Input
Amino acid sequence: MRVSRRHIIRRVVGSLALTSFFVLATAGCFTIFDGRHRGVSPASPPSEKQVGGDAPLAALMYLWYGFDLDTGASRGGIGSSHWNTPGPHSAHRRGVTDEPEYGFYASDDTSVIARQLADMEEAGISVILLSWWGSGDSDLDGVKENKESEAMDRAAGALLDYISASSAPFKVAFIVEPYTSNPAGITLAQKQTILDELWDNEYSAYPDLMFHWEGKPLLVTWAPLELKSPRDPRLTVKTWGSYFGGPNWKAASGQDWNWHPEPAWLSSMISEDGVYVVFPRFDEYWLHIMGRVFPYPYRRVDPLLTEGLYEQTWQIAAANRDDIRLIVLYAWNEHKEHASIEPDKNISPASYGRSLLEKTSTYYRQFLSGSPITALGSD
Output
């Protein structure tokens, strides 16, 4: 049997994470995960209904923060990767106008991971969709030249090791971003190479942590990349995207899941397999101001959190409870698009402190209980 690099290093890293876990728990930094919360046990077989009841709450999580683009070193701070990175080729790594409660962190910092998991649990999140940009070989030529992607892949390992070591009550699935230069044009063999890499280094290395959908571990790809055509029997593969075409997206886009920040389309966004996206707001204005060029007019949806968009997304979910099997939050920490609920320091006009965390917890409980979604006041 081929042994992956994750199998080789996870025992050492897991021991370090567990040590960090006990230090932080003793200091009172976060709730101790005992592996029994909501009936989750590391030894029990994965199940679609193992976490979060009949409709788990998943959140898209980004691991691209705080790295040096040239070396991949973890340094954190404003100006590191995706914290308004300077330079002529970094416009898509800007847009942040506020500071997270944890500071401008590096995504592989285990002390930050501990706080993130505690806050996710408080919000009711039990499934993490990890955004993945490859492991450094962005042109699929067998050579790892992308230090930022290598760092993000390292952060994924740190997160998975921490969840495993602490028995935190989460399941994980990877969402493969269109990270190659021509994602729509990669060959069948290249697609299988990506799937094999993820299987060897992630899915088979952490089988108890993987979220199952339709009987198999779930893997999601962001359009235009699709990895369904190899028909890999080990995985359930779904294609997700932001299709602009409106309510007829199911027939027109070829995607399994769709998300587009247009409130008028919300009720049409439920997929055939019962996936629905909620989001607190969406704002590309600051990306635009800081130099990103869009092929369409930049989008602003409830940018100041004053129009009740988040409540509306949850109210649509509640009105369609019988059709929803998985709720996906866009996103846990997309700070550049201002679509995050990760707590911030409440220092800008459009900040929110911990209020979105509280709203998410409340609205999700109301959804599960069959109650109407009752809006909470803004902080």
The domain at 51-369 is CATH 3.20.20.80 (TIM Barrel).
